[in-house]
Write a structure and sequence with these properties.
Elements (H helix, E strand, L loop, with lengths): L8 E5 L6 H5 L4 H10 L2 E5 L2 E5 L2 H19 L6 H16 L13 E2 L4 E2 L4 H12 L2 E5 L6 H15 L4 E6 L15 H5 L4 H10 L2 H10 L2 E5 L11 E5 L7 H8 L7 E6 L13 H9 L5 E5 L9 H21 L1
Parallel strand pairs: 6-10, 6-11, 7-8, 7-9, 9-10
Antiparallel strand pairs: 1-3, 2-3, 4-5
Length: 330
């Protein structure tokens, strides 16, 4: 983009030329992404990048680029999503008066295949909550990383020996009793409904490791109904799509926590698929759990969506429509 020549210029210099192709991106696409997000102009010449724009925006762009460079020094190659995340984190640090450099480093999640970084300030809060509280409830729309980050922290804790197993569960509301009529083993019947969590697992662990751990019972993927009557100790439990539990089911799973158990409950209260008139167990639980010590609550909104930029606009548009409908009915 063309910036006003009178605007201040910031020049960054990077020492390791080998990292520059990944830092700048193919055809400088990472620099173009930062330009688009912050309204600055960035020009690379060798190991130097000049940034021109409003002082605050230029400083934020520099902080984001420096963070991406540090990640490359640690062996992590950034994609466009990581670029967006670095810009979000730097922007938030600038707004709060922070330095904007390395803010998300403590919230990095190291798994066997990759390191996952918080891509927004609230995601960083979420990672901290998962590490500090035995029970965390994460609410919000699709695309905010609720389930993905929960599975990543579970894999990280298993890798560190902090838990002995991972349990992934969700209510099979769409299947109902038809589950029993599907062909195949329980695993073959259940896996389609658990696909989002399984996809996250395969993102973070080699495929053969996932298969082996499931055979050994170290990773368990099962419908919520199979949790009844159990005590889940030394485990990291992820309850996904919790808005589709009933209050009785929610109480059941919350009371399964045994010694050294960590549990995260994720869901979107605006996407309840229960029969009309049935209260969501997630909504019911939030009325009861708020204010209880050692329960972390993270509430995402459309501004925290970290998927394609269009997803943010879609979620926001649906939310506005729903508010209009509520206004018309009152």
């Amino acid at each position: 983009m063309n910036a006003d020549a009178r605007q201040p210029q910031l020049v960054l210099e990077f020492q390791d030329n080998r990292l520059l192709p990944a830092l700048y991106g193919e055809h400088d696409r990472n620099l173009a992404r930062i330009e688009q997000k912050l309204g600055v102009s960035m020009v690379s010449r060798g190991n130097r990048v000049s940034i021109q724009g409003e002082e605050g925006a230029a400083a934020t762009a520099g902080a984001a680029l420096n963070e991406l460079y540090r990640r490359l020094q640690r062996g992590q190659s950034p994609g466009l999503g990581d670029v967006d995340g670095a810009v979000r984190m730097a922007s938030a640090a600038d707004a709060s008066g922070g330095a904007g450099d390395g803010k998300g480093e403590g919230e990095a999640i190291r798994t066997q295949k990759r390191t996952i970084w918080a891509r927004s300030p609230l995601q960083a809060d979420y990672v901290r909550a998962l590490r500090e509280h035995p029970l965390v409830v994460a609410l919000g729309p699709a695309g905010t990383g609720k389930t993905y980050i929960a599975v990543a922290v579970a894999v990280s804790m298993l890798r560190e020996g902090r838990v002995d197993r991972i349990i992934l569960t969700r209510p099979a509301v769409e299947a109902g009793e038809r589950l029993g009529f599907l062909p195949g083993t329980l695993e073959e019947k259940v896996d389609p409904y658990m696909r989002p969590m399984l996809d996250a697992l395969f993102d973070m662990m080699p495929g053969e490791t996932v298969i082996k751990r499931r055979e050994e019972g170290i990773i368990e993927v099962a419908p919520l109904a199979y949790m009844r009557g159990r005590t889940l100790a030394n485990a990291f439990i992820v309850l996904d799509e919790a808005q589709n539990t009933t209050p009785i089911q929610m109480k059941m799973i919350l009371t399964r926590m045994g010694e050294n158990a960590h549990m995260v409950v994720t869901g979107d209260p605006s996407q309840v698929d229960l029969p009309l008139g049935t209260k969501s167990g997630l909504v019911d639980a939030m009325e009861i759990l708020r204010g209880i010590d050692d329960v972390g609550v993270i509430e995402f909104s459309h501004v925290d969506v970290v998927r394609h930029a269009l997803v943010t606009r879609i979620v926001k548009a649906y939310g506005a429509r729903d508010l209009d409908l509520l206004g018309d009915s009152s």
